[in-house]
């Protein structure tokens, strides 16, 4: 059964209907790619799942329970990690502090000394094949691709069930996009349900198995890879 399920969800900003009648299932171990032109409702969809906006119609369920998130914290506490394109991490903070930042168990780690936190961050990033020579440097010094990878690695390590990625490759070149796509696959292999928002159909097709196209706030296509036939 889906970990996140939107049933006939709508969202209006005043009299702007950003989403209408959106039904969508996010399953663990799948990469759900959400495509659509500017203004199609992609950000609005993310904001509802991530706790930045409440939907105005329909039902959002997480793990089969009806939910209505009124803060990002509530979404995170439900196991939903969201990585935004520009705000993936806190730019002025060191790499290792960022690794622990914002997680449910940060409090427990708060009593842990810095040396130990640094060691864990280093071990985890190395384990996931991310090599950052100096974990003391501010995250803002790293490339956009490295920041996305750290944010994804962090979500996997902290046991997120769902990972939402807002245009993670939009600002990246071919090589860095490839690295980030590899981490998206790692998150799926770790059993997360991934929601990959992208403008890039090629990136979607490289990693996705579930494709949802939004058009003017409605779902205009919802299909699985197995259902796509390239013949005829
Ligand atoms: P996308 O992310 O696909 O570009 P959005 O979710 O940002 O689409 O926008 C969907 C529609 O809702 C657009 O018509 C947009 O102008 C409108 N919209 C988005 N956010 C707001 C807002 N905070 N207030 C008013 N209208 C908004
Ligand atoms: P929020 O999304 O929490 O409202 P934003 O910074 O996105 O915060 O938007 C602030 C205000 O700017 C919104 O309340 C809306 O009036 C306007 N706005 C933002 N994005 C859009 C958009 N895509 N289309 C129309 N108006 C927007």
TrEMBL record:
Keywords: ATP-binding, Nucleotide-binding, Sugar transport, Transport. Residues 4-232 form the ABC transporter domain. It comes from the Bacteria. The keyword Nucleotide-binding applies. GO terms for molecular function: ATP binding. Transmembrane segments: none annotated. This is Simple sugar transport system ATP-binding protein. It comes from Kribbella orskensis. The lineage of its organism: Bacteria, Bacillati, Actinomycetota, Actinomycetes, Propionibacteriales. The chain holds residues 17 to 248 of 295 of the full protein.
